[in-house]
């Protein structure tokens, strides 16, 4: 099976481990991911805030390259890239006049044929069926599935999962032997792009997310977006300052969790690249803690 | 030879300023067959009408054409004038030279010419008009009231007190509806059951009202004044005559943990139950889906304890047929619940409840006997957050409309909570406060000023549980969208009022139209608020749109007075513009060949089969026949008839073709006479 693949900038830079784990998981499931030839930046988040046509043209060119290469589906792991590609495709399909104008700009008569697939859809529909029954070391951890904003919003366009209480990632975690907690911060804002300009605010927003996950006894936060990951991982200092508390809970990508369950070498999944070391507490194999820990336990300074 | 009179109206400036009316009248005078043609400033005025009457008498007119406004406005006026002068009213027609001409064109010759054309066309039609006689249909003076809530109760009592028979059908085991579940009512805080139950009793006792509870409409057919309805009386498993309502069966029933519908799921009831103590009728019903005997074949404890042997396990549904003349739909509404608010944790957290559940908590007949105790652990909540517009006015949730009752009942809830839990904190998150109604605004002010309810203007984004508290996360938009977080013990959602379950199916059964939200549609939003598009079917209460009690009662009385007006006559008069299948002399009898394509095409089920037989009863042929009571004169059957055996009275094929030909012959005004 061969699928189109759009990595985007994060997966080549700050989130190399996301790329590595997507590739490792795909290979393990016998799926070949073929990068969109000569791909460019999707424009997020600067382009569509500056100029509508630029904001649409950049993703449109990516779609055009994939379409010209005969790709029917493109896997897009980054949530922001996914959102931009999906929104662009939707807007062009809704408005013929706009489609013609953007086609003229990118010098390609775009028909918007390739479907855009996010990482959860990719895992659910392609990877899981291929590895079902081949789970080598069940990912038997109590985790908080954190979706962030862009995977499910705007719901009208994406039509993916449930807007206020998504469940698809929890389902994948369950299928690899994990125990997703029921919590309220699945789609709360992590602070996103304010990471650089208002780090202190990101510390507060991401801190609330980690705090709720901690109270409910999560051992890790599972993410599917490079931006969320960077805020929950790279900005751990700002978080700890804002919350006045130490957190040793790692934030890992969903593909890394699936890769661990498939028995892939942690180094190949890039687990060594995180700022917060990925270490799970030792315990007898196959046993998941029964409930949330008392607030006074682990993690307090 | 026709003798047609043409009367051109200036309608003040409406027509006169754009169309040269004198010229139109002069041109009309030259149309063959026209013997009289005049113009006048206001044809609809008394002098104008007199001009028509005098001309009919003096010139012995055989037809009248009034070139004026739309026939929707003044056709009845002019037809009545003709009738008074001795001319069959259906020989009078209007040429619409206002809406179709003067209002939509500039002043000028082409506009005047178009007006002349329009008049000419109608002259050609009137030349071929035939005198028609209005159709009379009898009226069955019995009304069907569907739904036994406050709207249905009011409508039934008003109709019954006017001396007419009423059949009331209610699908649940007791009448009373949502109002019987309420604690107190705004804006006076009088006890809901205290004002409702006397009316429920009156319905049960009224000599003119036949009550069918635990029943639904199976089918309805017929037309205004002459409906035939089949009512399915669901098996109650009780002999209503033998049962004394002693309640022993309910006390002894071993299956006790069924969530009570009346208590909105907060209390429980047995499998054989009376929904609430004041139920009418006060006779139990066996819930067969939960009864041990029906599930496992054993138990029959109720049968053993019943002192009058009233239990009937083998009872079957019964179909009751009735003839009725009018219907009042009063099927009510429900509030949105279920998996609709994942962000508020409704259904996940026990202490996030909806407005109806709060009513039951506050009600003296409720599961806590009127004490405000939260469902999870029975503690008195110290802080309660009320969220208005939960779902309503929220396009993202698919409900754009305002549910109308929530602002008032939320103010009432907060007030009742403050009265019952002294020192408790009541917060209301709101978008706007819509308190339009007598004493309503004062009521809300009272909640704020006297009862200390804290109103926070803003929406709640999320409710989640942390360490035994419900964290309500929202914004205060009056403080510049400041984030607000409240630790609450209980959250009450004023969830959207939506159409009742099964409303769409019922509307289709009744042939009434409904809107995108499945609320039944009135015939006109302003001038016909209780009528539906189907003659003889009226609306009352929240089945049409969310309404509070006073409004539901007012509309119910309105619907009842419409029914009363209908029942005040022994026969109904209908316009004779209906389709007719031709009949001719033997041996043909009719050009209808009996293919019945018309029957399939008719949207009103108005085509019947008629067998033509010889005197000794031998079948000659089966032909179509139009039921004059059902036919709405749409003409669909005329279009599909292969042998042109059907024609529409007043709009015959001959007339319509003559109108078209008149337009085509414009260049040669003398042709085709």
**CATH architectural grouping of the largest domain in chain B:** 3-Layer(bba) Sandwich
Class by SSE composition of chain A: alpha/beta
Which series of helices and strands of chain A comes N to C? Answer: EHEHHEHHEHEHHEHHEHHEH
Radius of gyration of chain A: 19 Å
Largest interface: A-B, 13 and 13 residues
Radius of gyration of chain B: 32 Å
Which fold name corresponds to the CATH topology of the largest domain in chain B? FAD/NAD(P)-binding domain
Query: Overall 3D geometry of chain A?
Result: globular
CATH class of the largest domain in chain A: Alpha Beta
CATH homologous superfamily classification of the largest domain in chain B: FAD/NAD(P)-binding domain
**CATH fold description of the largest domain in chain A:** Rossmann fold
Share of residues in strands of chain B = 15-25%
Percentage of residues in helical conformation of chain B: 25-40%
Structural class computed from helices and strand pairing of chain B: alpha/beta
Largest sheet of chain B: 5 strands, parallel
Molecular structure report:
- In chain A, strands 2-1-3-4 form a four-stranded parallel sheet.
- Chain A is built from 13 helices and eight strands.
- The model of chain A is unreliable at 290-301 (pLDDT under 50).
- Chain A starts with a strand and ends in a 40-residue tail after the last helix.
- In chain A, strand 1, helix 1 and strand 2 form a beta-alpha-beta unit.
- With 301 residues, chain A is of the alpha/beta class.
- In chain A, helix 1 packs parallel to helix 13, helix 3 packs across helix 4 and helix 6 (119-131) packs parallel to helix 8 (168-175).
- Chain A has two domains: 2-119, Glutathione S-transferase Yfyf (Class Pi), Chain A, domain 2 (Up-down Bundle), CATH 1.20.1050; 136-273, Rossmann fold (3-Layer(aba) Sandwich), CATH 3.40.50.
- Chain A is globular.
- With 673 residues, chain B is of the alpha/beta class.
- Chain B folds into four domains: 4-134, Rossmann fold (3-Layer(aba) Sandwich), CATH 3.40.50; 142-329 and 500-567, FAD/NAD(P)-binding domain, CATH 3.50.50; 334-498, FAD/NAD(P)-binding domain; 579-648, 2-Layer Sandwich (Alpha-Beta Plaits).
- Helices cover 28% and strands 25% of the residues of chain B.
- In chain B, strand 6 (142-146), helix 7 and strand 7 (165-169) form a beta-alpha-beta unit.
- In chain B, helix 6 (109-127) packs antiparallel against helix 19 (653-664), helix 12 packs parallel to helix 13 and helix 13 (406-420) packs parallel to helix 14.
- The model of chain B is unreliable at 669-673 (pLDDT under 50).
- The chains are: A alpha/beta (301), B alpha/beta (673).
- The interface between A and B is medium-sized, with 13 and 13 residues.
């Amino acid at each position: 099976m061969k699928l189109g693949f759009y990595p985007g900038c994060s997966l080549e830079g700050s989130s190399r481990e996301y790329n590595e784990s997507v590739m490792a998981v795909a290979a393990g499931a016998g799926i070949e991911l073929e990068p969109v030839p000569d791909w460019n930046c999707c424009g997020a988040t600067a382009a569509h805030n500056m100029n509508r046509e630029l904001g649409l043209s950049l993703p449109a060119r990516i779609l055009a390259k994939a379409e010209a290469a005969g790709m029917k589906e493109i896997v897009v792991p980054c949530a922001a890239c996914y959102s931009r590609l999906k929104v662009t495709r939707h807007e062009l399909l809704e408005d013929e006049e706009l489609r013609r104008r953007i086609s003229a700009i990118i010098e390609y008569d775009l028909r918007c044929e390739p479907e855009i697939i996010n990482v959860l859809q990719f895992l659910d529909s392609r990877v899981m069926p291929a590895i079902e029954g081949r789970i080598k070391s069940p990912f038997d951890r109590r985790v908080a599935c954190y979706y962030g904003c862009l995977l499910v919003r705007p719901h009208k366009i994406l039509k993916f999962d449930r807007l206020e209480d998504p469940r698809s990632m929890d389902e994948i975690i369950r299928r690899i032997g994990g125990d997703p907690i029921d919590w309220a911060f699945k789609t709360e804002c992590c602070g996103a792009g304010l990471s650089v300009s208002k780090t202190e605010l990101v510390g507060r927003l991401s801190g609330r997310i980690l705090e709720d996950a901690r109270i409910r006894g999560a051992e890790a936060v599972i993410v599917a977006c490079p931006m969320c990951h960077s805020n929950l991982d790279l900005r751990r200092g700002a978080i700890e300052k804002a919350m006045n508390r130490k957190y040793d809970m790692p934030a890992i990508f969903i593909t890394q969790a699936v890769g661990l369950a498939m028995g892939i070498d942690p180094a190949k999944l890039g687990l060594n690249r995180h700022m917060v070391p990925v270490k799970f507490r030792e315990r007898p194999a196959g046993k998941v803690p029964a409930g949330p820990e008392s607030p006074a336990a682990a993690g307090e300074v | 030879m026709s003798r047609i009179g043409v009367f051109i109206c200036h309608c003040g400036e409406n027509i006169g300023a754009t169309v040269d009316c004198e010229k139109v009248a002069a041109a009309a005078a030259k149309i063959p067959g026209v013997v009289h043609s005049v113009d006048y400033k206001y044809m609809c005025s008394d002098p104008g009408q007199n001009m028509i009457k005098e001309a009919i008498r003096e010139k012995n007119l055989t037809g009248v054409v009034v070139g004026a406004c739309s026939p929707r406005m003044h056709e009845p006026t002019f037809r009545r004038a003709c009738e008074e002068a001795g001319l069959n009213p259906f020989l009078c027609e209007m040429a619409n030279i206002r809406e179709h001409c003067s209002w939509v064109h500039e002043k000028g010759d082409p506009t005047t010419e178009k007006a002349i054309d329009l008049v000419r066309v109608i002259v050609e039609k009137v030349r071929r008009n035939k005198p028609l006689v209005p159709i009379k249909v009898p009226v069955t003076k019995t009304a069907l009231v569907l739904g036994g809530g406050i709207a249905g109760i009011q409508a039934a009592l008003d109709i019954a007190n006017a001396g007419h028979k009423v059949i009331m059908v209610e699908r649940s085991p007791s009448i009373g509806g949502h109002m019987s579940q309420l604690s107190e009512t705004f804006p006076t805080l009088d006890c809901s059951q205290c004002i409702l139950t006397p009316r429920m009793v009156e319905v049960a006792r009224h000599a003119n009202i036949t009550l069918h509870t635990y029943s639904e409409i199976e089918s309805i057919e017929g037309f205004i004044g002459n409906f035939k309805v089949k009512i399915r009386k669901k098996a109650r498993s009780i002999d209503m005559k033998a049962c004394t309502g002693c309640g022993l069966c309910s006390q002894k029933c071993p299956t006790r943990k069924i969530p009570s519908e009346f208590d909105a799921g907060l209390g429980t009831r047995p499998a054989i139950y009376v929904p609430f103590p004041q139920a009418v009728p006060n006779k139990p019903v066996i819930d067969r889906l939960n009864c041990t005997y029906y599930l496992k074949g054993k138990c029959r404890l109720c049968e053993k304890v019943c002192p009058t042997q009233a239990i009937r396990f083998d009872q079957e549904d019964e179909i009751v047929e009735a003839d009725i003349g009018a219907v009042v739909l009063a099927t009510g509404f429900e509030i949105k619940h279920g998996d609709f608010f994942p962000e508020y944790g409704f259904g996940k957290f026990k202490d996030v409840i909806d407005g109806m559940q709060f009513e039951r908590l506050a009600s003296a007949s409720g599961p806590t006997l009127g004490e405000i105790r939260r469902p999870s652990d029975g503690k008195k909540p110290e802080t309660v957050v009320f969220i208005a517009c939960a779902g309503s006015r929220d396009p993202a949730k698919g409900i754009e409309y305002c549910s109308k009752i929530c602002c008032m009942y939320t103010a009432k809830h907060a007030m009742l909570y403050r009265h019952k839990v002294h020192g408790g904190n009541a917060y209301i998150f709101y978008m706007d406060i819509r308190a339009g109604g007598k004493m309503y605004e004062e009521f809300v002010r009272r909640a704020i000023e006297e009862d200390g309810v804290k109103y926070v203007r803003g929406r709640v984004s999320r409710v989640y549980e942390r360490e035994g508290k419900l964290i309500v996360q929202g914004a205060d938009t009056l403080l510049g969208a400041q984030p607000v977080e409240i630790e609450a013990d209980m959250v009450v959602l004023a969830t959207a009022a939506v159409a009742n379950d099964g409303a769409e199916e019922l509307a289709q059964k009744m042939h009434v139209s409904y809107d995108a939200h499945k609320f039944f549609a009135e015939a006109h939003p302003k001038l016909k608020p209780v009528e539906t598009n189907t003659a003889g079917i009226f609306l009352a209460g929240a089945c049409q749109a969310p309404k509070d009690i006073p409004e539901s009662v007012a509309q119910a009385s309105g619907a009842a007075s419409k029914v009363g007006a209908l029942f005040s006559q022994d026969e109904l008069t209908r316009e004779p513009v209906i389709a007719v299948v031709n009949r001719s002399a033997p041996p043909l009898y009719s050009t209808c060949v009996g293919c019945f394509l018309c029957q399939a095409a008719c949207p009103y089920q108005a085509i019947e089969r008629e067998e033509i037989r010889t005197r000794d009863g031998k079948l000659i042929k089966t032909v179509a026949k139009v039921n004059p009571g059902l036919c709405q004169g749409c003409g669909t059957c005329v279009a599909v008839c292969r042998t042109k055996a059907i024609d529409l009275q007043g709009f015959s094929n001959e007339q319509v073709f003559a109108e078209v030909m008149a337009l085509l012959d414009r260049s040669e005004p003398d042709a085709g006479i």
